[in-house]
Design goal:
Length: 375
């Protein structure tokens, strides 16, 4: 069976984990944590990067740092993972779902402004499949209405928008290093803090409400509980695993792009015949080959396609059920405007196997199975 995802392994993970153990430092903020954060700050031109226990916890922190509370509203796409909405709900605010663009499956920036009310405090831009939202428009809307912008760039590490890395454009950026992502630490993530004025509170929030980070930098002689916080700091073991990925950043990115481009070359003729639709990459966007998806005619054809691939020992999967139609979405949020594309497009989308070191012979089997379905 050709699996949908294989977690990335570069070869140095065990070596670095052993080094962390030998250093007698396996809790967070050790040498590997600092190495990972420093690398991302320099590589992505990010003011401050804090490793977190997950992409979800990075979103939680971002919402808390925006000062959200009961009665507030946050605009976000319905086509996203539950973590995006859960972070809003955890803060006490209400998620207001809007429609998506069918070409990128990202939030439709033209629908945002009409959804703003006096209670709106923030916009969450989810960069689906590592392809950027229309950030110039989104940040302009936010600036004119005094709103925060949170980038859910869980799938967007190494992707750019007009030369800027995703996660560095809004007020806060959130990465995921889950095992399904391009770079992994098993479970983990990172919060990008893009304004110096937010850093101290972000550090306190991550360190259980204490000013421990300042203590370890020698800025104070003892640390204490100074504000609300939680445990958002991952262990050195996780950071050591991630460092083995980050030092191979370009190799992993290039390898995934090779696989992506092989899919494109093989399947594009079907798209040109109108038999399927492929991912659209807008001008000014550079993606990271996080996934390869196709769109079938409708839900029935997608179901038949997934069964066909399974019969050929290949795992193909669909993605999110729109949050506004899920039980929790109905309970906690609301949809603004008309659902023109969110549900219809989500029912057509299917993802093919995509991971680091996808064997070309396996990829050929996937391509041949795709072709045989349409025959």
């Amino acid at each position: 069976m050709i699996g949908f995802n294989v977690p990335p392994v570069t070869g140095n993970e065990i070596k670095y984990i052993a080094e962390a153990i030998q250093n007698r430092k396996i809790s967070g903020d050790g040498a590997f944590t600092k190495r990972c954060s420093s690398f991302m700050e320099k590589r992505f031109d990010a003011p401050h990067v804090l490793l977190t226990t997950s992409g979800t916890s990075a979103l939680d922190m971002a919402c808390i740092l925006c000062g959200l509370h009961a009665g507030d509203e946050v605009i976000l796409p319905s086509y996203t993972f539950s973590s995006t909405a859960n972070a809003v709900i955890l803060s006490g605010a209400t998620p207001v779902f809007t429609d998506i663009r069918p070409d990128t499956m990202n939030i439709d920036e033209t629908k945002i402004e009409a959804a703003i009310t006096p209670r709106t405090r923030a916009i969450i831009a989810v960069h689906y499949a590592g392809v950027a939202c229309e950030m110039d428009t989104i940040t302009d809307i936010a600036r004119r209405h005094g709103l925060f912008v949170i980038e859910d760039a869980a799938q967007g590490v190494m992707s750019t928008y007009k030369g800027r890395y995703l996660g560095t454009i809004g007020d806060f950026g959130c990465y995921s290093f889950h095992e399904t992502k391009n770079y992994s630490m098993g479970e983990g993530g990172a919060l990008l803090v893009n304004h110096d004025s937010d850093l101290e509170r972000a550090e306190i929030l991550r360190e259980k409400g204490t000013n421990r980070s300042k203590f370890f930098r020698g800025q104070i002689d003892k640390y204490t509980w100074v504000d609300f916080g939680d445990s958002y700091l991952p262990s050195e073991i996780n950071a050591a695993y991630l460092w083995a990925q980050l030092e191979m950043t370009d190799d992993i990115n290039s390898d995934r792009l090779r696989s992506y481009n092989r899919y494109i070359q093989a399947i594009m003729p079907l798209a040109e015949q109108g038999r399927t639709e492929l991912q659209s990459i807008p001008d000014g966007c550079v993606h990271n080959a996080h996934m390869f998806y196709m769109k079938l005619r409708d839900l029935a054809e997608r179901t038949a396609f997934i069964e066909h691939m399974k019969a050929n020992d290949i795992t193909a999967v669909f993605h999110y059920v729109p949050l506004h139609s899920a039980p929790a979405g109905i309970k906690y949020g609301r949809f603004y405007g008309e659902d023109i594309f969110t549900t219809a497009e989500s029912e057509r989308l299917v993802r093919l196997p995509m991971y680091y070191h996808l064997d070309e012979s396996d990829q050929d089997k996937v391509i041949n199975a795709v072709m045989s379905f349409f025959e």
